[in-house]
C-alpha cells in the first residue's frame, strides 16, 4: 500500500510539473515573457527574461496545496470571463487551482469573511475545499486563465447554496 501511495504521489507530481510547463508556454505566448523560477534560468541565454510570478506552498487562505488522491490526474485549462456585475456564485474546489488574471479586477470573497481583490497580472492559488465566490464589481470584463489540477472523472468545482 505504501508503494502504491508513493507511485501515485510521484505520478501526481509529474502531472503538476507538466501543468506548470504548460502554464509557462501559454503565458509566454503574449502575456509574459516566461514563468520559470529564477533557479531554472541557468540554461538560457541572457536575452531570455524570467520572472517568478508567484511561488508558494499555500493557497490564498493559508491552506496547504495538496494534490488529491487516488485517481488518474487530469489537468483542465479554462478561460473564465465575468462580465461587469457578474458573480460566480458560491462554490468550492476539491482540487488545486492556479489562476492568472488576464484582464480586469476580481473580488474574491471567502465564506469565512476573507475578501481579496485580484488585479491584472496577479496569480492566485485558490483555496481548496473553502467556499468562496468571485465578483466583478467593475465596469469591464474580468478574464481569468485557470488551471484545474484534478482527477479524471471527478468534478473540479462544486456549487453550494447561496447561504454559504
Outline the fold blueprint.
Layout (H helix, E strand, L loop, with lengths): L1 H27 L44 E10 L8 E2 L4 E7 L1 E6 L4 E5 L3 E3 L6 E4 L6 E10 L6 E2 L5
Antiparallel strand pairs: 1-8, 2-9, 3-6, 3-8, 4-5, 4-7
- One letter per element, helices H and strands E, the order comes to HEEEEEEEEE
Number of domains: 1
- CATH class, named Mainly Beta
From the coordinates shown, what is the CATH architecture?
Answer: Sandwich
Q: Strand share of the residues?
A: 25-35%
Q: How many β-strand stretches? A: 9
For the biggest sheet, the summary is:
4 strands, antiparallel
Average pLDDT works out at: 80
Q: How many alpha or pi helices?
A: 1
Give the terminus-to-terminus CA distance: 37 Å
**Major sheet strand order:** 1-8-3-6
Word description of this protein:
There is one protein chain. With 164 residues, the protein is of the alpha+beta class. It has a single domain (2-159), classed as Sandwich (Jelly Rolls). It is 16% helix and 30% strand. The strands form 3 sheets. The chain has a 4-stranded antiparallel β-sheet with strand order 1-8-3-6, with helices on one face. A 3-stranded antiparallel β-sheet has the order 5-4-7, with no helix packed on it. A two-stranded antiparallel ribbon has the order 2-9. Strand 4 and strand 5 form a beta hairpin. The longest helix has 27 residues, at 2-28. The protein is globular and about 50 Å long.
